[in-house]
Amino acid sequence: MTGRELSERLNYIGMEKGIRKLAIKDHPNMIEKIAIMSELEVCDLIAKDYDMLYSESEEIGLVKKDDYMKCLKLINIISR
After folding, report:
1. Domain ranges of the chain
2. Direct distance between the N- and C-terminal alpha carbons of the chain, in angstroms, rounded to an integer
3. Per-residue pLDDT tens for 10-23?
4. The predicted structure's pLDDT at residue 5
5. What pTM value is reported for the model?
6. Which among 26, 42, 22 is positioned nearest to 34, based on CA atoms?
């Protein structure tokens, strides 16, 4: 996942706020810098540490890259 791919899936302002909160949680020493970053810059920061499991119109599932393979083993994907 790239920052651009994540940014394109943020359909609501609340989702952008959630991404910023996650960035602050993971990088508490960068609070001031995150506050003035563009949405795309914040998404790029998140994309360094997270992969997207799923994306729906009102919800995005992210998982730390270290745990991505563990999550895939737990998920059963059913498609049409």
Report:
1. 3-74
2. 24
3. 999 999 999 999 99
4. 95
5. 0.85
6. 42
Give kind and range of the element (H or E) at residue 12.
none
Instruction: Provide the angle, in degrees to the nearest 10, between the axes of the packed helices 13-26 and 39-49.
Output: 50
Tokens coding 52: 């997207």
User: What are the φ and ψ backbone dihedral angles of 74, each rounded to 5 degrees?
Assistant: -90, -15
**pLDDT per residue over 24-76, tens digit each?**
999 999 999 999 999 999 999 999 999 998 888 899 999 999 988 888 888 77
Q: What amino acid occupies position 70?
A: K
DSSP for 16-71, written as a single string: HHHHHHHHHHH-GGGHHHHHHS-HHHHHHHHHHHEEEEEEETTEEEEEEGGGHHHH
State percent of the chain over pLDDT 70: 100
Tokens at residue 24, please?
């602050």
Amino acid at 69: M
